[in-house]
Amino acid sequence: MNRWGQVARHIQEGSLSVLLFLLPFSKAACEITFGLLLLGWVMERLHPQTRAQSVWLSPRLRPLSLAVGAYLLICALSILVSDFPQKSLNGFVNKWLEYLMFLVIVTDLVARSGLKGGASLVRRGLIIMAASSVCILLQSAAQEIYIATRPFGYDDAFMYHRMLGPYENPIDFSTYLIVLIPALLGLSMGCRGVRRAALWLLLLGLLACLARLESLGAWIGLWVGLLLIVGIDRNMRWGGLSAMVASLVGGWFFLQRTGHMQKLFSLSSIGRTDRWLMWQAAINMIRDRPLLGHGVNTFMANYMAYWVGGEPVPRYAHNCFLQITAETGVLGFVTFVWVLGAMIWLWWRVLRSVGSQRDSRMLLLGLSGGLVAFLVQSSMDTNFYSLRQATLFWTLSGLATGLALTMRSSREPSVPSPLPL
Fold this sequence. Notes:
Mean pLDDT: 88
Strand content: under 5%
Distance between the termini: 11 Å
Number of strands: 0
Low-confidence stretches: 413-421
């Protein structure tokens, strides 16, 4: 690699490391590191010697690249029918285009590193996230002590009477945890001795935080992700089942201790009745404009025109798939599911066909379980419409997709290619 390419790569790798550590703590870090990642990626595209060295030019990624292009096209077309075109344009450029570029850049970075380098990059990224989560555990423990003792009286920041970690509400914190826990579980399978014990101690702490957050949607998402892990690889069954049992026991303990057991599963609780009302509003929007929707990034702007009850203020749908359909129509929903399906199909094919490369397989399986957990919870919350949550999903999707490509390449016969990775 020439010096220009080395500088570009160092910029991307350094920015990715900073992003993975600071992501739960800072929205600004997401924006700044995105700019640096994009700078390094564009530097490679501008230099004649590295211009064509992108994995996105490879036939192996054609289904996913077509899906991404199709979804962005539908988002762009929805701007033409939007009643708030400026808002839609801002949402298209500053949200979806930026989020999907995280996927593009990180996939390129990992896949072009080769099998050994790609796995090392993913492993290093997860270790950085593990180090970051230690800080989160310390912060959460301090918050729990504060909530229990209230040395300065009532604090609006803890109106939920639950720890928040570095987030503004317990739901967002739980989303981060359900993605991180399976990923760190996969990382632990490649460790031995003290390192594995330390990771498991960390996982128990994160599971305790998740149990304390009392988020049913997050628990369901995590269990689905862990069941995926358990069903695919027998080497992960003990770890996956142990994490499921720990979350169940911890959840039961905190629900009994706080007296929220009945409330959590009650269909008449405010959180559930509000969701039904928001979903009805979203469905009415879809019925009104089924093809291209009301315009990307306009759900809240249109919400009061379709309000059917609950709090009379603009709100998200609390179901990302309904909101995407309301904003970009059935065409937007289909192409978005195409993007997700193309990624998951690639991960699945590699996990089913590559029996060797055990450490890389565990890393990919852990990432896949966490990302599936995110998607399950997205059907009950606003994950794709929160900067840190969306950045988390698309960045880790890039790690998983890039790693899957390197594992798949190692199984294919060596043939001359004009597109070196």
